[in-house]
Design brief:
It is a single chain. By secondary structure, the protein is α/β, with parallel strands linked by helices. The chain folds into two domains: 106 residues, Rossmann fold (3-Layer(aba) Sandwich), CATH 3.40.50; 179 residues, NAD(P)-binding Rossmann-like Domain (Rossmann fold, 3-Layer(aba) Sandwich), CATH 3.40.50. Helix content is 29%, strand content 18%. The chain has nine helices and twelve strands. A seven-stranded parallel β-sheet has the order 8-7-6-9-10-11-12. Strands 2-1-3-4-5 form a five-stranded parallel β-sheet, covered by helices on one side. The longest helix is centred in the N-terminal third of the chain and has 19 residues. The mean pLDDT is 97. The chain binds NADPH dihydro-nicotinamide-adenine-dinucleotide phosphate. NADPH dihydro-nicotinamide-adenine-dinucleotide phosphate binds next to helix 5 and strand 7.
Length: 308
């Protein structure tokens, strides 16, 4: 019998239990903080409470309920545990929609129109063609690649940035740290879809913002810890940046005293860009349990050492 532990210190994951039981024959589940979790052989996680894996002697697999794994990784490398994440068409589609909206918001000057409305100002912004708007996507992974292709299909001039080379028709992909300056210098709207790792934490900082052209905008939908909030606030206040659409924040929920709430240049959304459906999570977790039981290669395996 497989025993799944549903582990989270911030979310209620108990809804997944009955669905997993239906999908996997002979399965039992426990929900943290039930100490029975410590006997489980599979952990299904979001924001795992610290120090748990090492207290789970039977654990053979750590599975995310999401695309990102940063908040479930600590402790997996030392325990030599495989980690899987969710890769899902619907999740990708949600992110594409979110970014298309955010890019249109700046490209078609809806930000300007909304600000003018507050002061009852009637002034028609200049119409810019999509082909004159340069969108730079950081991260050419499952999400970044689809977002870049969708933006290209809408006529935008799209470039990407990743660690390794990617061939995406109509998208110029810059590779590595040494190519970052060139990528940023030609970006009017910067979309962050990097995973959170030791290398990318705090990457949206003063130095990066200063390398964007004056008047550039930010779409932040990777992880909150990529962003140095004070640097963004300063760049917006001195009008170097035009605005930001932010879905993720270093501290979530965003606290009431954050200066971001009151800035007219900023659109705040509550980590809603996209998410995997419970059905997709259950399908992928149960498939990986089947593979684990039959000694087959796992799907959507994460490189734990690399951090994504
Ligand atoms: P992937 O793991 O598929 O792709 C990550 C990409 O980032 C790869 O192209 C990788 O480069 C690149 N990358 C990683 N580290 C670096 C680095 N140091 N320098 C340059 N490029 C780097 O991730 P996904 O596309 O599936 O997801 C991206 C992130 O989106 C998730 O990790 C999660 O944090 C976030 N997310 C946010 C959601 C929201 O609702 N706001 C929902 C879902 C995900 P290479 O290709 O060379 O390896």
């Amino acid at each position: 019998m497989t025993h799944i532990a549903l582990l989270s210190q911030t979310s209620k994951l108990d809804y997944l239990g009955p669905m997993l039981q239906e999908a996997v024959p002979a399965l039992r589940y426990s929900v943290w903080p039930d100490p029975a979790c410590l006997d489980a052989d599979v952990a299904v996680c979001w924001n795992t409470p610290p120090g748990l894996y090492e207290r789970m002697p039977r654990l053979r697999l750590v599975h995310s309920i999401a695309a990102g794994v940063d908040n479930i990784l600590p402790g997996t490398a030392s325990a030599g545990l495989p980690v899987c994440r969710v890769v899902d068409e619907g999740l990708t589609r949600g992110m594409v929609e979110y970014v298309l909206w955010a890019v249109l918001y700046f490209h078609r000057s809806f930000d300007t129109a909304l600000r003018q409305q507050r002061t009852r100002t009637w002034h028609r912004p200049t119409l810019r063609l999509a082909c004159d708007c340069r969108v730079g996507v950081m991260g050419m992974g499952r999400l970044g690649r689809s977002v870049a292709a969708a933006l290209r299909n809408q006529g935008y001039r799209v470039s990407g940035w990743a660690r390794s080379a990617h061939a995406i028709e109509g998208v110029q992909v810059h590779t590595g740290q040494e190519a970052l300056d060139g990528f940023l210098a030609h970006t009017d709207i910067l979309v962050n879809l990097l995973p959170l790792t030791a290398d990318t934490r705090g990457i949206l900082n003063e130095s990066l913002f200063s390398r964007l052209p004056a008047g550039a905008a930010l779409v932040g939908c990777g992880r909150g810890e990529h962003l140095v909030v004070e640097a963004l606030v300063a760049a917006l206040r001195r009008r170097h940046l035009r605005g930001a659409v932010l879905d993720v924040f270093p501290q979530e929920p965003l606290t009431g005293d954050s200066p971001l709430w009151a800035m007219p240049e900023v659109v705040i959304t509550p980590h809603m860009a996209t998410m995997a459906s419970p059905q997709a999570v259950v399908q992928q977790v149960s498939e990986n349990i089947r593979r684990l039981q039959q000694g087959q290669p796992l799907i959507n395996l994460v490189d734990v050492a690399r951090g994504y």
